[in-house]
Write the structure tokens for this entry.
Amino acid sequence: MIKTYRASAGIMLAPAVTLIGIFILLPMLLTIWLSFQDWSTQTPFSNASFIGFDNFREIFGPTSVGRDFKRALLNTAIYTALSVILILPLSVALGLMVYQRDVAGGTALRTVLFSTYMVPMIAVTLVWSKLYSPSEGPLNQMLGLAGIGPQPWLSSPRSALISIVVLNVWQQIGYFTVLAVAGLTQIPGSLYEAATLDGANRREQFRFITLPLLRRTLLFSAVIAIINAVQVFEPVALITQGGPVGSTNVLTYHIRRVGIERAQGGLGSAMAVMLMLALVVVVCALFAFANRKDDE
Amino acid sequence: MSAPGRSGSSRLARKRLAGHRALLATLMLLVAVASAFPLLWMVLSSLKTPAETMQVPPVWIPRTPSLEAYENVSGVINVGRSMWNSLVIASITTAGILVTSMMAGYAFAKHNFPARSLLFSVLIATMFLPPIVTLIPLYRLVGSIGLNASLAGIVVPNLANAFGIFLMRQFIAGVPDDLIDAARMDGASELLILFKIVAPSVAPAIAALALFAFVYHWNSYLWPLTVLQGNAQDYPIVISLSRLLSYNRGALNTGLVMAGATLAVLPPLVLFVFLQRFFVDSIVGSAVKG
């Protein structure tokens, strides 16, 4: 009985473990291995030849390969930081709007916000490239009504990256709002009642009850926001191709260009390993920061 | 309550609450408009004539709505074929994810085996791995088993994922052990128990996972683009749509591009509108229970 039960657990796990093993874990290990190899993506893995840390030296070196990669790493860091800075406060503010019961329509608002999350990024990209259009786009027209001059949006190296952040935040904010609402429902109402009796106003309640008790939710949201942010691809691939002057060249786009289009598999893998390492460091730092706050 | 001071202050409080409500309602309306605006503008633009899309300052509401752009977009990309490809990709991938996630989720929730939590942690860690990290070797790997430039190449690597396993384990853990033990005593096989007894009691979670997987793989762009290369026959709608880019330069073909975007957005959005409860519940379930 125990034996067949054990065997059945194996059968249950086999399909998922095999598929994830072959198509995610194995490629991940191959990425690490390839980062130490000289290898063209157009050749079999057996053609790879070991070159130690040369790929890493090159992507951090003074040549154009190094300059492009370092710029892409910096762009991705800026992009990710801007995304998190916009998403976290917005998700809490919108979450409170959806969750409150003073005014009807919270659930309807949630529906509207979340619906954008269903839209393919390609469609988002095409629509926003028109909204941002300097001459016939509605955004500059609205700014004009408010007395603000036309903005270059995607066509200036100063504003292109933040313009892409904005369209991504617009698309994803509904998801993070739902996460925030999930966190808000976990806070016992009795805490607010007690605080009201003690004479705490709304602002104090938010500062001393809502925010501290949302910390775990915000930590989870921050991790997801970071993982999502490094994946930005469609707007860059479709509209800016990394430009103007490299200002929107982010890692997912750059790694694919180097590793697939230019078939420099070893170099691309070294960049992918650096991205993986950077993510591990940032996420660990985030958890350490949150835990330290927990101890206080 | 009859004291004049009290009633005065409560009137003040009521006034303040009314002010608070008015402000909140205004804010909510603004947020809803800002959120819905790009999609509304997309649909409105798809109904404009080329002359209207060219106008500066822009025309907001088309004076004579026309479906001309929808006819034109079919002349540029193969809309029917692309939508069909997307449907095939998203449906088969979703079916695979459902089966593999239910089986593994059941094993993790209701079976004891060596290194269970270690294996679970390793699988869950892959949830946080951005696809670009594995893209280069995966591209080569799929090519070396002869699946590149085909629909199978898009589908096969995605037939199992950690999110599905995680979600299923969370919900199956809540199914009473007694129910499962009774079936075991009757000699039912584990697969039979999973599909006849466990599955029906976690039906809402299965629906949520199905919708999530379908929408995700309908929208997915990076992997199909990489694996298909130039095989235009098998393009899903999002890749065909990206081919409209050359029509996107000037304003002349805005209507055409927006018509294409509207068509691509429709299936996931319609699914969402009818089944949003499942989407939201599963996100909440994956965040809170984790």
